[in-house]
Amino acid sequence: MGRKKLLWHLFPFFLLVTLVTLVAVSWYSARSWRLFFLEQTAKDLETRAHLVEGRIGGQAALANGPWVDKLCKDLGKITATRLTVILPSGKVLGDTEEDPAKMDNHGDRPEFRQAIGGRVGMSTRFSYTMGHEQMYVAVPLKDQGRIIGVVRASLAMTAIGQALRVFYFKTILGGLAIALLVALLSFFISRRLSDPLENLKRGALRFAQGDLSRKLPIPQTDELASLAEVLNDMAAKLEDRINALIRQGQMQAAVLSSMIEGVLAIDAEQRLIALNRAGARLLGVDPQASLDQNIQEVVQDSGLRWFINRALVARDPIEEEVAISEGQRVLQAHGTSLRDASGTNIGVLIVLHDVTHLRQLEHLRRDFVANVSHELKTPITSIKGFVETLLTGALKEPENAENFLRIIAKQVDRLNEIIDDLLSLSRLEQDAERGRIFLTTQKIQGVLETAIQVCGPKAQAKGIAVHLVCPGDLRARVNAPLLEQALVNLVDNAIKYSEANREIRVEAERAGPEVVIRVKDQGSGIKPEHLPRLFERFYRVDSGRSRASGGTGLGLAIVKHIAQAHLGKVTVVSTPGQGSIFSLHLLPD
Ligand code: ADP
Question: Residue 416 falls within a domain, yes or no?
């Protein structure tokens, strides 16, 4: 059955009850009124009959038939009533409507028979004289207590019916007016009852659509007011809970997106249901576009796909290192199955940690240890060899012994240099880490001059001239001892890797947002393939030449660290056979 509004339940019911009552009351009152009207008419006819009775007076008047007839005709016209005088024999003496001589004997008429018996006679029946239904009331005509005839008054029922019809018409008209009024009133009452409910329904719908901030108005009716209050209370609690959930969700999203680890949540149907920014970056996909996609399509790397598939079926958490991007990246992958409250497996959570840098550092550290050992091993082996030679007798040959000791001393110097450079490097790293390298804005010309002076003897020995071009007022933010050390290393290299009698230029200038110090030489130059690794520890283009010229392989690594401590950098441009330009980029004042 179709659902109807409350209004259409209430209104027809009210209307039906009212109409039934109205019809019943109208029918009952019409019936009562008709009886009352007929009674009144009968009484009226009786009075009129008595009027004729009074006018006739006694037996004597009855002897004058024509007079009686005329009386009936005159009074009948005045009272608009048919009056008839009948003798005890049934013979009609006078009549308002007819000639008595033509009328038949009325001795058999019921009203006549009652009246002749001394009572008031009454009858409603068809009149053959009149040709329609009549109401008859007959009274006995007495003279000194003796019944000498009957006076009958009658009225056509059509006249009574007409009067009643007028009454019925007015009653129906009034009833219709009342029904209309009642219909309107019923409608308004039904509306008054259903409107607050309608308002509550609209408010509840608003709540259902998520608008919980607008409260429901409280209706006047006690029960509805309680309902509205309960709904408002429920909405307030719901709003609090939703807000708490939103906050919680936002917090989780913030935590997820700010995580360095990549996080992927996959459901049991292998659909990606959550992916944070780091995860999307590691997989090289768009986080929004990948959501709800099959994980086999999202993850391109076969190694990682294999790990995820294993995690999807594993009962316990699994952890593994997975190399992706053709081995260029190493991920520490962790997979844990997701379970709902009842413990059913609903998917898997994968956490990816990019350990590429860590692995590179480990690699570097291993290389560094190997390099240091190798660097130290060469002079130590040499020293050990000469010491053993001396001990096995060479000590007794003064000429050889002195020669051997000189070599030993040289190797010790070399060891010393390597250890000095290693110590400088580690001190630099530690100081930079602890923020103990202080920079001050100062003129740099003096620092450059000192560095060149330090290298002076070596330069002179090779007949190399070192020129300085630096504006006297050029200022930069520097740590003077470190900058001097970096320049000494660069100028020392320029001397080492240049033929005799060449020229070296140290130029400093302000270039845009930085101060650049260039060390230009006309030396051997460096092939392009060596340039990317040139600033690594112990990296040498030509190990033999480097060692022969007393190089430790750490000079440029130190320069790089010093540049970084100055929040700058070191770059190199080189043409093999023509020379190199090493540039230190520093911050101006
Ligand atoms: P080393 O102590 O061997 O000089 P560095 O770290 O100072 O170590 O330099 C690394 C390598 O870079 C050197 O072995 C050398 O081959 C190359 N190199 C450095 N400076 C120059 C330069 N001015 N000209 C040519 N090669 C250079």
Answer: yes
